[in-house]
Please model this.
Amino acid sequence: MPRKGKAALRELMEQGHLHVGEELVCVADKSSGREESGRLEADGGIRVGDTTYSSLTAWAKAVAGGKPRDGWLYVRRARDNKLLQEIRDGVSSPPPATVVAYPAVDHSTDEMPPAIASPAPVPESDEARLLERVFRVSPAEFEVLVGEFLRQKGFDEVVVTRTHNDGGIDGHCMLRSVNIKVAFQAKRWQNNVGIDEAQRLHGCVAGDIDRGILVSTSGFTAGTHAWIRETRPKIVLIDGPQLAREMIELGLGIQRVPVLRTEIDEGFFRRLSP
Model:
C-alpha cells in the first residue's frame, strides 16, 4: 500500500527526489495564479512562515479557504515547477525493466549466471546537502558566511556590521579593481524573500554605496523578480541554490574527501607459490 501524508514525503526525500529545505509552491487559485511558498521539513511537514502544516492537503485546504482538495495536485516543486503528484506517480510506476538474456548454464561445472545487481541508491546532491547545512546556521552566522563568500569571490575590505536595525545592510565590501563599494544583505529565510526587502536594500544604494547584493537561503518571490526586470536596480539577487553551487566551486563549506577502494593484491597471491 502506498504511503500517505508525511510518510510519502519522507519516502521521496529518502529517494533523493526532495530534500530538507526544498521550496514547495501551493497554487491557491489556479484561475488567478496566486501562489504561496513553503519549505519542506525533515519530518515531512511544510513550514510556511510561523505555521507548520502536517500534510500537503492541509496546506492546500488552508490556502484555498477550506475547500476540499488533494494537496498532491496543487503543490509543485519550485525548482522545476513539477507537481508532486507527477513525481510520486513517476516513482511508483517505474518504466518496464529491461529483459536480460543470460547464457545457458553448464550444470556439469556448477556455474551459475551472474547475479542481477541492485540499482544503486540515488545520492543526494552536494548542493542539496550543503544548502541543508547552511539552513542550520544562525542568522548572525549566516551574515558571517555571506561575508566570507564575498571575500572568496574577490571582494576586499569585507565588514559584517553585526548591528540590529541596520536599515537593510548587514555588511559592506569593496571591489577595489573597479573602485565599487557594495552593501550586502543576508537573509537566512525559509520563505521566499519579497519585494520589500529588495527595495529596502535598493534604498541603501546611494552616496558612497554603488551596488547592493541580496543573498537568501531560499528564493525570491515572483513579484521581486518582476520588479528587478522592470526597474533594473543596482542590486544583485543570489538565491539558496546559486549560493550552494558557488560555494562548492569555491570549496567553501565543503571539502573533497578521497575515495578509497580495494584492489586484489596479486603480489600476495604470487608469494603463495612454493
Q: What stands out?
A: The first strand starts at residue 23 and ends at 29. The two ends are 61 Å apart (CA to CA). Confidence is low (pLDDT under 50) at residues 93-123.
